[in-house]
Amino acid sequence: MKPLSDPNLPKVSVVIPAYNHERYVKEAVCSVLEQTVTDIEVIIINDGSTDKTHEAIQCIADERIQYFHQENRGAAHTLNRGIRLAKGHYVSILNSDDRYEHHRFEECLKILETDPSRHAAFSHVEFIDDQGNHIRHQRGATENWADHHPEPSFKGEGDILLDLLAGNFLVSTSNLFCRRSVFDRIGRFSDLKYAHDYDFFLRLCHHFKVALIDMPLLKYRLHPGNTIRENEAETDFEVGLLLSDFFVNHDMRKFFPDEDRHTLMAKFFNSIHPCNSERMIMTLLLFGLTHNTREAFSDSLTKEPDNPFRKACIGHFRNHLDMWQESQRAWKKWAETNDRLIEADEKLAKADEETRQSWQESQRAWEKWRETNDRLMETEKHLVQAKKQADRWQSDSAVTWRKHTEMSHELAETRREMSQAREEAEKFRRSSADAWETCHQAEERLAEAERRIRANESAPENRQMKIGRQQTTGNGQFDISVVVPAHEEGILAHPTMESIFRAMQYAAADRVKSEVIVVLDRPDPSTEAYFSRYEDAEVKRWVVDFGDPGLSRNYGVQRASGKYVAFLDADDLFGKHWLRAACRRMKEDDKGCVCHPEYVICFEGEHLLVRYQSSDDEAVCLGNLIEHNHWTSFFVTQRSLLMENPFMPTPQNSGFGYEDWHWLCEAIAKGIPVQVVPETCVFYRRKLHGSRLSRHNTDNVATRPSRFFEPEIFSSMMGYKSF
Question: In degrees rounded to 5, what are phi and psi of residue 430?
Answer without folding.
Answer: -65, -45
